[in-house]
Design goal:
6-stranded antiparallel β-sheet, Penicillin V Acylase, Chain A, single chain, alpha+beta, 301 residues
């Protein structure tokens, strides 16, 4: 049995090596009053957690998602603050980026500083331009504030930091470079489907956002680990675990921050561990070592 599974995994290596192991879908929608943001975090790891940090002086209170393992344990994947600013990051094909000579590199997690210090998309954009961000060439940053402003920060064809602002009542981001889609990952079915669904039904409701997240969720090695819908005007979040959109945990940011700084694993917030989680984790135990071995062999050639 084990030999058969290993053989199957080896046969799939050529496909898996070309498939993204970190894919996400993010969107926002507004009716001019309410502002909702939906996010599917698709990743090869499943040890996601949320850290709540209360306001401290001029620092806003924050809710931040991260993973315990991987290449960047503890790195802030996304979150929201008490001012109503949301951000998340998607992986994109690598793009060369050129910074101004002498531009400083922030010592620490710049996205975390952004949530602590910024209340709007414009404030966040101004902060991001101050520092050199070497990793920005491999991803995009999605920004939304409770005023209904939204934008995506990435690297353009000219190798400079670039911002794409919302021009409709919604904005969608997946995993291709918006300014240079030829780099890979485009066309993207998830992006096209989310855009189509929002054009047909732009209703700014939790139910509509939940249906959209369900429609673009991912299964497999890089499965949708968690999904969240953030109500930026009310400081609330609806959280879903492992693409089960029938069970939601509602989190009020102010209530959580009143408990002081604390951190919880996402899985601990839900009543049971879905069988799909067990199956996916067992598959990863077989496949990931083979992928690592395959990548090492490729690098040695």
């Amino acid at each position: 049995m084990y030999f058969t599974l290993r053989l199957i995994c080896l046969l799939l290596l050529s496909l898996l090596s070309a498939a993204p192991l970190s894919a996400c879908s993010i969107f926002m929608t507004t009716d001019g009053k309410a502002v909702l943001v939906g996010n599917n975090e698709d990743y090869i790891l499943s040890d996601a957690r949320i850290t709540f940090t209360p306001e401290n002086g001029s620092k806003y209170g924050t809710l931040i998602f991260s993973f315990d393992a991987g290449s960047l344990p503890g790195f802030p994947q996304g979150g929201m603050n008490t001012a109503g600013l949301f951000y998340d990051i998607t992986a994109t094909p690598a793009s060369e980026v050129v910074f101004a000579p002498g531009q400083p590199i922030y010592e620490g997690y710049l996205p975390q500083k952004m949530l602590e210090d910024c209340a709007t998309v414009e404030e966040a954009w101004a902060l991001l331009q101050k520092y050199a961000m070497p990793g920005i060439g491999q991803g995009h940053i999605f920004l939304t504030d409770k005023g209904g402003n939204a934008a995506i920060v990435g690297v353009a064809k000219d190798k400079q930091l670039h911002i794409t602002r919302k021009t409709e009542k919604f904005l969608v981001l997946t995993n291709f470079n918006l300014d240079n889609p030829a780099l890979g990952g485009y066309p993207c079915y998830r992006h096209a489907l989310a855009t189509e669904l929002l054009q047909k039904n732009p209703a700014t409701t939790v139910d509509n956002c939940r249906a959209l997240l369900s429609a673009v969720h991912v299964e497999g090695l890089a499965a949708t680990i968690y999904s969240n819908i953030c109500d930026l005007n009310n400081g609330e979040m609806y959280l879903y675990y492992f693409h089960n959109f029938e069970i939601a945990v509602k989190i009020n940011l102010a209530e959580e921050l009143s408990k002081g700084q604390h951190s919880v694993t996402i899985s601990s917030l839900f009543p049971y561990r879905p069988f799909s989680v067990i199956v996916t984790d067992e598959t990863r135990k077989l496949v990931i070592p083979l992928l690592e071995q395959h990548y090492q062999q490729q690098q040695q050639k």
